[in-house]
Amino acid sequence: MRILRLKLKNFRQFYGECELEFLSDDTSRITVIHGENGSGKTSLLNAFKWVLYGKTDFDTGEQTILNELALSEIALGAVTELSLELEFEHEGSTYTVHRKQEFKRTGEALEAEPIGKSVPTLSWIDERGKYETAKNPANRINQLIPEQMHSYFFFNGERIEKLANVSASGEIRDAIKTLMGLEIIDRASDHLGRLVIKDLRKEASETASADYRELLEKEARINTEIDQRKQERDTATKSSKGFQTELDAINASYEQIADVKAKAEQRRSLETERGTIEGDLESLSQERMELVSQTGALAFLSDTVTSVSNALEDCRKKGELPYKIRRTFIDDLLHDAMCICGTELQEGSQARAALEGYRDQATGEDLEAAFTDVVSNLRAMPRERNRLYAQLSTWSAKESDYNKRLKAIAEELDEISSNLGSSDIEDVKRLEERRNELTQLQADERLKIVKAKDAIELLNDDLAKIKKEIDKVQSKSQKEDLARQKLEFAEACKNLVDNLHEALAEETRHHLSSKVNDTFQSILRKDFYAEIDRDYTLR
User: Fold this and answer.
1) Long-range contacts of 70-73 (CB under 8 A, 24+ apart)
2) Mean pLDDT in residue range 379-398
3) What is the dihedral of CA 267, 272, 274, 280, to 10 degrees?
4) Which part of the chain is the Rad50/SbcC-type AAA domain (predicted)?
5) Which secondary structure element, helix H or strand E, spans residue 11, and what is its range?
6) Could you read off the pLDDT of 91-124 as tens digits, one per residue?
7) Residues 488/493/499/501 CA torsion (nearest 10 deg)
8) pLDDT at residue 465 above 70?
9) Secondary structure class of 128 (helix, strand, coil)
10) Each residue of 196-230: pLDDT tens digit?
11) Cβ–Cβ under 8 Å, residues 393 and 225
12) pLDDT at position 89, please?
């Protein structure tokens, strides 16, 4: 989307008709507007919001958007008009949005009231040159630029600072979901879970047998408890982010005080390092769990590997495994009724009977392949066990180093906090007291988040067990069977929608992360990279 021009008539500081053209060709894409305080820069920013949505961010409301000079030129009871027109390009079409509002002068002190609501119109010329107008302008505008997204396109310095804050990650995540259409999938999942499945479960319970009804009631109770735990988790997450916002403000205040700026910067550096180490510890723990789940049994198989290897070696020495003649070879000789030495193998002959005896001792291809695989794996197990021990030892040493560094960081942070808390500067003491209070409150909320996540995990395990029991219960009537099928279909649909949402969200995050990193790399030449993590925080 490229903004081409903005026309204003009697809007705020802009008396009469004014036009602002924006550079949008391939060589010039930036238009700089500068002026003194009160000259109308913020009014221009609000002009975009008003022409698109009929709203502004002015504290004084919509009554003051009319230019005072234009109002002073009309008599008491007379009417004047305010209008804005925005022209922009989007996907090959040129759009024109026009909005006007009439005002009636109501008092000598330049007072006016709007007459009715503002009237928007939207027209466009497509890439084929066809002219069209929108029957529902507001709906069409929201399709082009959703109203809840306008602050990501039209913003000031304070807005940029807020978005750059770690606590804004949730807001950014929701915005990305809206832009990519994921919000619709969110609503579909919520509708299925909160309304459809709930109603179908009630319907199934009414027609169910006693056993089935009891299981459905248990399932409903577990789902209700899961929803409660999720609500607790989300509330705690929101509170934690709120505390973080205030902590960020306190840290910024410290850096404005010359006497403690160095200490504040040192603390910020230490906290960043602590966060990195905690992330590394979590990754290490995850990798260790995965390795142990895959190969951990090797640590307990030393005696078993030895005994099995000895047994197979005895079989090999006795010629039992693998046998020197394959069964398929003997089958071919019996089929041809001729031995490799030239002896005929007639039915009932002594030669044929001897060869059939060898056939019973011969090794089948499947058994021989299994023998080879087992021997190969047994030989590899000691090496894999040693590799497991070596990797676990490496991780243990690294974990020990991480914990030592975390302890040292904690001591340094405590010392900084103590120094700031005993500062002779009263504002610093007050800020540090509040900071310590917020830190404790945030720690409490994070503990609630962890407890809620653990509870949800256990409840999901219980839910899976209940579902298995439900699957075992047989329907007692056709009506009950139909109700069960409808419920199972709705649950399958919700799972499908949830999986689709997760896949699309992850794909979107990876795409955006790659785009951000490309931009980051084009700006900096240092050996750093940027990414958007799973919490939609820029790192």
Assistant:
1) 70/10, 70/15, 70/16, 71/103, 71/105, 71/110, 71/112, 72/110
2) 81
3) -170
4) 5-254
5) strand 2-11
6) 889 999 999 999 999 887 888 889 988 889 999 9
7) -150
8) yes
9) coil
10) 888 888 888 777 778 888 888 888 899 889 989 99
11) no
12) 92
2-154 CATH fold: Rossmann fold (3.40.50)
CB 431 within 8 A of CB 253: yes
Q: Which residues contact 224 (CB under 8 A, 6 or more apart)?
A: none
Q: Quick one: 97 exposed, middle or buried, by C-beta within 10 A (0-12, 13-18, 19+)?
A: buried
Residue 176: C-alpha distances to residues 48, 159, 304, 425 (Å): 21, 17, 55, 44
Q: Residue 31: CA atoms inside 13 Å, Cβ hemisphere, count? A: 14
Question: Which one, of 159, 163, 142, lies nearest residue 55 by Cα?
Answer: 142
Q: Which residue has the higher pLDDT, 87 or 109?
A: 87
Q: How far apart are CA 212 and CA 349, in angstroms?
A: 68
Run of H or E including 414? helix 365-421
Contacts of the segment 477-482: beta carbons below 8 A, 24+ positions apart: 477/207, 479/207, 480/204, 480/207, 480/208, 480/209, 480/212
Which residues are CB-contacts of 260 (< 8 A; sequence separation ≥ 6)?
254, 420, 423, 425, 428
**pLDDT per position as a tens digit, 405-438:** 999 999 999 998 888 888 888 888 888 899 899 9
Buried-exposed string 474-485: b where 16+ CB fall within 10 A, e elsewhere:
ebeeeebeebbe
Beta strand 93-107 with 79-90: parallel, antiparallel or unpaired? antiparallel
Tens-digit pLDDT profile for residues 477-522: 777 778 878 888 888 898 898 888 888 888 888 888 888 888 888 8
What number of CA atoms fall less than 13 Å from residue 62's CA on the CB side? 18
Query: Which residues, in sequence order, are bridge partners of residue 133?
Result: 123
Domain limits, the chain:
2-154
Q: For residue 9, what are the contacts with CB-CB under 8 A and spacing of at least 6?
A: 16, 17, 18, 81, 82, 83, 84
Reported as half-sphere exposure (CB side, CA atoms, 13 A), residue 229 has a value of 18
Measure Cα distances from 414 to 153, 272, 438, 455 in Å: 42, 15, 15, 33
E runs forming strands in 23-172: 79-90, 93-107, 111-125, 131-133
What CA–CA distance (Å, rounded) separates 201 from 224? 13
Give the burial class of 76: count Cβ atoms within 10 A of its Cβ; 0-12 exposed, 13-18 middle, 19 or more buried.
exposed
Arithmetic mean of pLDDT, 121-135: 92
Query: End-to-end alpha-carbon separation of the chain, Å?
Result: 28
Residue 404: per-residue pLDDT: 94
Rounded Cα distance between 439 and 427, Å, is 18
195 vs 311: CA distance, rounded Å: 63
pLDDT > 60? residue 363: no
| Residue 105 CB partners (closer than 8 Å, separation 6+) | 71, 74, 75, 76, 77, 78, 79, 80, 111, 112
Record the tokens describing residue 74, joined without a space. Answer: 């009309």
Are the C-beta atoms of 322 and 363 separated by less than 8 Å? Answer: yes
Q: Sheet with 111-125: list strands edge to edge.
A: 14-21, 2-11, 79-90, 93-107, 111-125, 131-133
CA 239 to chain centre: 19
